[in-house]
Structures are given as C-alpha cells and as structure tokens.
Amino acid sequence: MYHLDGTDILDEPYYRKTFSVCPECLKKIPAVVEEDDGKIFMRKTCKEHGDFEDVISSSAKYYKWTHYQKKDINGNVVWQFEKNGEANPPDCIADDRGCPYNCGLCNEHLSTCSLALIDLTNRCNFSCNFCYANVEQSGYWIEPSLEDIDKVMKHFRSKPIPPPAIMFTGGEPTVRKDFPEICKMAKDNGFQEVIVATNGYGFQRKNGGAEWTKKCREMGLDTLYFQFDGINDATYEKTRGIKGLMKYKMRVIENCRKAGFDSIVLVATIATGVTDIEIGNIIQFAIDNIDVVRGITFQPVSLCGRISAEEMHELRITNADVIKEIEKQTGGKLNMENAWYPLTTIVEFGRLIAYLADVEPAEFTCHPDCGFATYLAVDPDSGEMVPLMEYFDPLEVIDFANRFWEKVKHKEKKPIQFFENFLGDFGKTLDDGLNFLDKTQLRARFLLGVLQYMKKPGKLMDMFSRLLMNGDWESVSSFSYGTLLISSMHFQDAYNMDVERTKRCIVHFGVAMPNGTVKELPFCTMNTLHRPEIEKQVAKAITQKVRDEFDTSVGQAREDIEIEVMPNGGTKKEEEDSHD
Amino acid sequence: MTDEVTETKDGFKVRKLAELKTTTAKELEDAMLKRVDYFKEQNEKKSSFNSTIQNTFFKAFSSILDLKIGIDKALGPENLKQVHKAIDELLLFGL
Q: Following DSSP, what letter does each residue of A444-479 receive, concatenated?
C-alpha cells in the first residue's frame, strides 16, 4: 500500500485508547482499540456488566493503513485519513458526561452535517423483525407534519455550512401521499440532492408506478436509496420475512426506467451467512442495470438491540470482510489493497472541486473507520467497468489536490475586490471578470496537475474535464451517469461504538420537538441511544386505520390486495387491476 | 444477467464471478457525449466569451493528453517522478 511502503508501521501493533458504551446499561466506559492475531478488536469493561469484546476490522494491515500518519522529518503530520472538519456553531453545550449523551448538536462535535435525514413516518408495508422503525413493534405512530418537516429543512439549510443533500427515511417514506410535495419542499429549501431510503413501495405499483415515479422526479427527487439484499427470493424471506420480493424489486427498476429516472443506489445489509453470499450477485445486477443504477452501498449489519455475545460474534461482519468478499467474488478485479479508499480521502479534493466548479461543498470529514469506496466507470473502448484507479494514480492526485487547496483556500473567503473599492458597482463588474479569469486559470492549472498523473488517456477523462469546467452541480453530478460508486458503510452499535467516530459523524437526523426547537442528532447515537426517548416525545396514538393498512406478509397495501379479488371470490387478471 | 450461475444446496443462485462487463457501453458513451454537448450549449447561452475560452483550452488539453502518455513511456518511472515534482512546483508557483 502506498503510504506504508518503506515504513515499519506493519510491525508495530496498533493500540489506541478511546471511550465507548456498555451494551447492557449504555454507560460510558473506557475502551481500547488494539491489534491481535491479525485483526483489530475493541475491548472494554463495565464495572457492573463485565468484559466485552468486538471485532472492529478483520484486517489489521488495512486498518493500520487507514490510520497511518505520514510525517515529515520534523515529526509533523503531513498526511492522514483523519481530517479536521469545519463544525457549525453548536446548538447546545456538553455537560460533564460528554459525548455521546448531549446530542442536539453539542460543542464536542467536530464535523458539519453533509447529509440531513428526516424520518417521514414509522409506517411501513414491511415488518422486518430487526427494524427499529416500525409502528407495530414500537406501539406508537411517528409522522411529522409538513410544517415540522419544513422547520427541520430550514434548520439544516440555515447553517453557515449547510448540507447539500437530504435523505427521507422511515419506516417507508413513500407510504405518505404527500411524499412528492415533500420532495418539492426540499428543493425549495435549497437542497441540491434529494434522496429517499425506500424498499420501493411507491415506485413498484403495477398501475401508476411509472407515472408516480416520474412525478416524484419532477417534484425534485434525485435518487432512490433502494433496499436490495440480493437477487434470490429466499434471501428476502430470510431478511424480510416476505415471499416473492424479487418481482417487486424488478418492478421498481422497470418503472424507474420507464419514467426516465436514472439514479438508484442499491443498499444491501450484509450479515454473515445470510446476505454475504449475494455480494457478487448485487454487483452484477447493478452492472446489468447500469442505465438506472448509480451505486451500491453495502452496510455490514449494525446490531441495535439485545443479543447474546455468541449471536453477536456469529453475525458480526466488518468493512474489511465486505471488501475481501467483493475481491473474491469479482475474481480479484476489485482488489482490496489498491481499489478502496476511506471516504475521508477526498476531503480537500472535494473542497477544491466545489470551489472550482462553483458548487456547494459536501464535507466528508467523518472518521476513517466509517466507510470505504471505489468508483467504477465504463471503459467505452472495452465495455468493461474498470476502477477509476486504472486511469490515474489516486494518491498522487489527492496529494497534489491537497497541496493545491492549501494554496488557494483563502480565495474562497476573499475573492478579488480591487476595482470595487474605488469604482463602486462598475468596479464590481470588473472584479467579477477578474475573479472569473482567476478561477479559469486555477481550473486550468489544476487540470494540468491532474493530467500529469493520468496513466491512460481516453474519452472518460476528456468528458470529466469538460463537465468540471462547465461549473455547476448538474454538470458535475451528471458525470455519474454510466458509473458505479461501490461503498461499504458500517454504522455503529453499542458493541463497537467509538466516541472518536461519533464526534466526526456527518450524517445527522433532524427532529422537530414539541417545544418548537429542532434537535440534530448523529446517525449512530440516534439509533443506539436516543431514539426511544426522542420518539416518545413526538409520538402519536396509532389509529385503527394505520393498524389495518398493510398486509405485511405480502408487503402490499390492503386496499391494493382487496381490489385484486373479484366479487365472486375469483381474482382479477393483472391488466384489469384498477388500484392507483 | 449472464448464464454462469450455480445453485447451492439451500436453493440460492450464486454467480461464479461478477463479470464487471456491461452490454450497453456504446449507448452510455453516446449518452455521455450528448451530455457534454448539452452543457456546452448551455454554456454558450450563458456567455459566448467564456465558452470560447473553455473550448480553446480543451482543444489544447486533448492534444497534450495524448502527447503526455507517449512521453511518460519514454521517460521511465524514476525520471517521471522528478518531472512530476518539477511540474507540481511550476503549477503551484505564485498561488
């Protein structure tokens, strides 16, 4: 690996002290993250509940690379994957307990929010037994009003560094009839990217599904974060408890295709012995549907809830395991050692691109342990999907981008203001021209700098450069068409929580509270610690209508199922279905 | 999906290896080129002056790109490292 070449880092056992929580009582306890037998473990002791141990990474070598600090001859750190974020002003001050108990967002938090989340409902047409967001299992109903949703959106967008993207979560967000209007509300509030985490319910309808998909797109929905455990019905029976789901999933794909919707990210929860076997299938499915699929996110299972130590060790799978499995199931084409990088690799690169392309930045200053990614693009000459690393040396480009950003970052806050000082408005016009020329020469210098590290030319880099120079979000994001971002994101639970990770989280929930405020909570602490308490404060009583609305054994609305049955008890033919 | 699928004793369909190959490469290339043209037109509408500068740059950029690959092969890895260092210094000069 690049940064470990010529170092003794591989021989030094990894050891780091941090804080975590007891999985039984959720009290804050000291923990160590250490190397043992080629793996990385978190070990901690609760005075009341004893010792706990969990695997953080199945590859100590890979883990040490992501935590490596490259130092100069004076011992100063010049490169590391742990990046300093620019935090927004806090909403509250941490008390003596410190992180992770004071979420809302407290002054100990080190990163800004890059992806805002809003739970639109805890209603769902499925009833997955491990899901935290479920009306039936929780016993109460969560569904913010449009006014509350607007309040949360304004909270996020009013920050000095607002998140450019928002994701609607649940339950199943598309059970809400006002879902398209909520998408429009997000665009009206200035979000550049509007995403929905969905099992596909609203998009898979036999009648009207394509029209509804098109309507959502027109109203502002950009991306489906689409639950997809594999290509086998048997997998979904194990994971979701529902038969025949693959047909349901294919209807989503087809309706998106008909509606001209081209941004789906397949999301797979990976658990050992359950869905890891589907990893290769999911990648091939994405490639076979590359016209509508933009990415895959593998999510090693997060164990929120009480289970035995034995069960935990059986199910536990880490990012490194997923990456190794991908390497195996792609015949080594996506190599663990050189195709994958922590998300934090591109922090300065992202800031520089945002500045040069005049778009809002997305700050990826999460912890190096949070997630890894690789990027595939279609090689127009061979028709094969190849990692972008085949086109250029990524760390050389990143090094150059980091040095470039270090030199130009002051210009972001202080554009040229020479003529305005003594020519007023006319001077401002001249300054605008100077700023444009300055930025154009910076773009040219940067592109030439990247060019020198390219290993092979081709239409792909030519197209990327043109899109970058065109300078807006739409053109930069359109580069993703025909490409595939594969990532592995491991959300924390009480067994592996590391407050150093928690403090750097960039994915935040927003909840409108009864007292009129908006509470902002990092994803992992919301789901591990705070969710029950928060939900009790905003919960409504469940109505009979809500209880009766879904037959979760088939994943459909009861009104849809009933319509399929003829008055004489027979079933209608598919083309005669009249629902929606 | 291709035909290389095996079935486990549990009834799972497992592909032997994901091929990383798409059958739609030509269509995707055409679609991307159409997007480039679309954004080129949009740019021209905003400002023909800006558009002229960018198009001139890109003609030069494409030629330099092809030349560079040839030069890289001729230089060899050690000399290339030194050249990269010098080019970096040049590009960062004055910023």
A: HHHHHHHHTTBSS--HHHHHHHHHHHH-SHHHHHGG
Contacts of A552 (CB under 8 A, 6+ apart): A124, A125, A126, A127, A136, A241, A242
Query: pLDDT tens for residues A448-468?
Result: 888 788 876 666 666 666 666
Q: Are A453 and A392 in contact (CB under 8 A)?
A: yes
All residue ranges of chain A with pLDDT < 70 are 1-7, 132-133, 304-307, 456-481, 562-580
Tokens of A153: 């959106």
Cβ atoms of residues A241 and A127 within 8 Å: yes
Interatomic CA distance for residues A170 and A117, integer angstroms: 10
Between CA A434 and CA A416 the distance in angstroms is 7
Amino acid at A209: G
Q: Which residues on B lie below 8 Å from A463 (Cβ)?
A: 32-33, 35-36
Choose among B32, B39, B62: nearest Cβ to A481. B32
pLDDT of A29 reads: 96
Q: What is the mean pLDDT of residues B11-19?
A: 75
Q: Answer yes or no: are the C-beta atoms of A21 and A48 closer than 8 Å.
A: no
Question: How close does chain B come to A309, measured CA to CA in Å?
Answer: 27
Q: Which of B8, B40, B25, B36 is nearest to A462 (CA)?
A: B36
For the stretch A355-371, pLDDT in tens is: 888 877 778 899 999 99
Whole-number Å distance between alpha carbons of A44 and A67? 21
Q: State the pairing for strand pair A69-71/A77-80.
A: antiparallel
**ipTM for the predicted complex:** 0.72
Task: Dump the DSSP string for A316-374.
Answer: ---HHHHHHHHHHHTTTSS-HHHH-EEGGGGHHHHHHHHHHTT-------S-TTTEEEE
Nearest residue to A499 via CA among A7, A156, A28, A63: A28
